[in-house]
Amino acid sequence: MKLHRVAEGPEDGPVVVFGGSLGSDLRMWEPQVAPLVERGFRVVRYDARGHGGSPVPPGPYELEDLGADVLALLDELGVEQAHHVGLSLGGMTGMWLGIHAPDRIASLVLCCTSAKLGPPSMWVDRARTVRAEGTAAVAEAGVQRWLTPGYRERHPDRAEFLRAMIAAVPAEGYAACCGAIERMDLLDLLPKITAPTLVIAGAHDPATSPGEHARPIAEGIPGARLEVVAEAAHLGSYEQPAEFTRLILDHLERA
Ligand SMILES: O=C(O)CC1=CCC(=O)O1
């Protein structure tokens, strides 16, 4: 699977791969690009399979497929080892890589994510809705999980930009990724991760809350650190770009 990607920054800089949330495309990371490039990093953003400009094979997909896609991307770019920054589904992919391909991962940043995200019926229902009615049917609810109410009120244009982003995701791609999340259980495998890991949560994330989701990840990965960002919901890196980027850069420069 050849993922759609955009690479920016110095070709000889340390490579940082960015993987996004279910329902997003690589534009969700726009706020992070310039600050990392200015600090000398080679920033590679990709669209997960079934999303954005990447191919949309028919489902089912497993997390293993999403991880293998990133390894194929690294191979194609001739990159032996990269940092991986992932949010939600991107963070799940990052954990899979840290567990199954430790030699390829220099460090991990796991944003607003979970090692086991139930109940399975929620993902079955959402996949069924999307296959029947399209991603537009889940776009508004998605934005409500992604952004705090105050931010949506202050920035209706940005909320609309993200709503349209979700609605543009191919239904089969979104639904098949729901299935991968439904079947994911990484909790017992977290101690295998050896990469230096930073876990970042949004204080108001209704999908992957700090207490129920971020904390177990930070406690499961040896040496991992947890940061909780105030005034952030699920798409914290978009709503609070300055704070997320500061934390990411600090971690990358120490790793
Ligand atoms: O859309 C959601 O409910 C939140 C989410 C779970 C995995 C992901 O990428 O987003």
TrEMBL record:
Query: Which SUPFAM superfamilies does the entry link to?
Result: alpha/beta-Hydrolases
Q: Which InterPro entries match?
A: AB_hydrolase_1, AB_hydrolase_fold, AB_hydrolase_sf, PcaD/CatD
List, alphabetically, the Pfam families matched: Abhydrolase_1
Q: Which residues form the AB hydrolase-1 domain?
A: 14-240
Q: Which NCBIfam families match?
A: protocat_pcaD
User: What protein is this chain from?
Assistant: 3-oxoadipate enol-lactonase
Whichever gene encodes this chain, its name is: pcaD
